[in-house]
Structure formats: C-alpha cells, structure tokens
Amino acid sequence: MIELYESQRAMRNMRKAAMQRGVIAILDVGSSKIACLVLRFDGTDQREDDGVGSLAGQSGFRVIGAATTRSRGVRFGEISTMAETERAIRTAVQAAQKMAQIRVDHVIACFAGAAPRSYGLAGQVDISSPAVTEQDVARVLSACDVPDFGPSREVLHAQPVNFALDHRSGLSDPRGQVGQVLATDMHMVTVDAQAIQNLAYCVKRCDLELAGIASSAYASGISALVEDEQELGAACIDMGGGATSVSVFLRKHMIYTDSVRMGGDHVTGDISMGLQVPAATAERIKTFYGGLVATGRDDSEMIKIGGETGDWEHDRRTVSRAELIGIMRPRVEEILEEVRARLDAAGFDHLPSQQIVLTGGASQIPGLDGLASKVLGQQVRLGRPMRVHGLPQAATGPGFASAVGLCLFAAHPQDEWWDFEIPHDKYPVRSLKRAFRWFKDNW
Q1: pTM tops 0.85, yes or no
Q2: How many domains does the chain have?
Q3: Which ranges carry the SHS2 domain (predicted)?
Q4: pLDDT digits over 363-400, tens only?
C-alpha cells in the first residue's frame, strides 16, 4: 500500500502548491460532455475547524473560466478511445484557459464509471497519552483491516466517517479529548484500476498534471445535497449520459456509492432504434418533446421527425408524443429499478431521513421526479448544484453538479487516510499493483 499512499499524498501536495499559486482547473470527464472550470483562489484557504473530514463552505475561490465540449471516446463513464478523449480534453481546457486568460498546469478530475464498490472498515487502538493526538488518529486509521479487494482494483477514497472514544460514539473530531480507547469507522471506495490508469495517462498526454481524483457520485452529492440532507441522510442519484451514479450521505460523509451502467444516452438510443432516426435527431426529439407521463392530449400532439435521407416520405414522418413517451418510459423505469436495488443493498431504509435527490443531465426529463417517487417509494426532489462565485449561467444546471462539487472538493477536501502520517510499521504488507505507478516514472 505504500505506493498508493505516497501517490495520493503527492497529489495532495500538488493541489496545495497549485492553490498557493492561485489557480487550478476542474475536469469532469463524462460520457456526453467534458466540462472544464478554472478556479482562482484569493489566498484565504482557511478550513473551518468543525471536525475531521468536515465539509467547509465555498468561500475562498471564484470561477474565472468555463468551457464544455462534446465528449468523445468515453463510454459508461470510462475512456474507450484514448486519442479522441485526449482531443476533447484539450479542447475544453484550452477554451477555459482562453476565457480565464491564464494558463493552468494542474487539474483535479472526476469520472462516473469504473464499477465503484464501498467497504465499511473499523479500527481500534489504545491511547497512551492523556489526550488524543494527531498520531493517535493516524494509528487508528492504520489499524483498520483492509479487505482483499483484488489486484485489478484501486482505492479511490478512504475517509473516516465516525470516531468513538471510550464508548462515546458519533465524534467528528476526537483530537484533544481525553480517553483510553479510540475507535473509528472508515468508508473506503475501490474502483477498476485500469479506468484510473487510462484517465491519469490521458491527462498526462494533455501536458497537464493530475492534482487530485474523485468519484463523480461523491462530487455530485457535495453540490446537490443541502447541509441538512447531508447530515440527516440522503441519496444523490446523478443521471449522466453513460452511467447513473448513486451516493448515500450521512453526517456530512459519503457512506455508500455505486453506479448503474445506464444513462440518458441509452434513452436516446432507444428513441433512435424505435423511430429509425439518427442519434443526433433522437437527442433533439428527446430534448424538445420528451417526457415520461402521457396525458390525453399527447395522442393528438404530433412531432415532425424530419431527416436528410432523401426519401421524401420517410423524411416527412410524424409521431405522436404519446408514442415517444412509450419508448422512453420503460428505459427510465429500468434505470430507476436498478437504482432501487442499489439503495436496498445499502440499507437506505434504515437512515433517519430517506430523502432522494435527482441530478445530472438526464434528470431534466419532464415527469422524472414523479416516476422516481413511485419506483423508489421515497421523497424525491430535483437537485441543482450549489451556486459558486463566478459560475456562468450556462453552467448552473443539473448537468454540472459533479463539476461544481469538484470545485468544492478542490477548495476544501475532506480528510482522507493519506492526510495523516501513518506509522511505517502499520503499512499493510501485502503487495498490490499500483494504479499510480506512472507517478514514479514521471516525477
């Protein structure tokens, strides 16, 4: 684990160095679009001291550049064609740099795929000093028994979500408190190693340095959930183009994440096959006329399909909106059924609050909130990302939830395992194939 630990610490140090220089870029690599935001920091990087892993406010930075481009070479949230993805990332970054009138060298990236898995770990140590110190927190984190998750997977997040000191549980920060036995609960997320390697290599080929990496589900939850929802318990469902991410938050920490390999692009594909039209036409029809709840008027509302095949009869076809809804609804129901299975596996029903927030580009389909409340059986609302300083109006929609959340993550990251000086005798001894081996080769 030493290589992973050191590579994550190296990225943390790069982030701090970039923030001291005052500028850093955010890169959201999605299946339908690639978004890049350039952040300028005003030098007031003071974290609010309300606990280990706390989420601080969004003060201290503003967005000075923003750009989006159509995603190429990305399927199911994972890179499938390196050269095309590299060109798309270059296009987005260069446009954002032009708007910001400044060059950026460091980016923090997020992605939605890579089959994330959640693990709940527990550790316990005896305290030798009168009060809990930083070294005690490091020792208890290293005492957590890491499961054998396999050589083809890598740790993406490892966050302490709860501390207990002498039978007093629910502590957010035990440092400075008096006790004899310190215990912790840690949430660890592993993802497919190859997906991270591809993303890291693609960023490197774009002449950029990777200063951080995060799960899109985590970033979306940070920006779309209000503070009370993060505290009492809520699920954030980020419906993107190629994947739907699920994250569950409690006490301001993500305690579960998973993803469904279906999204808005699959709805577009169904329309394309059902109406025998190109994908671009299907996307236009879905955007302008799509819906999930048919009414009596929809039978008489006809939609001109159009086309450029040269067949006059074929290009002048019309279809009723009710027929379009009949194509879209089964796929959306399938996605929501998969999401419900993930939430049931996470024990979502046992949380104090069961609020569900829908966000992401595909969440804008009319009638989705009503259908989701029927399928999921919970309170459902549509979520938009938190407003941050300088964000253009075009980037305030649900499709930018993960990008805005990544801004908050860049400014005030929650404490993770590698933010503490783990004692060297506590490193796990088993060797693993490291996802970030290229750090050694390039630094």
Answers
A1: yes
A2: 1
A3: 24-224
A4: 999 999 999 999 998 889 999 998 888 888 888 899 99
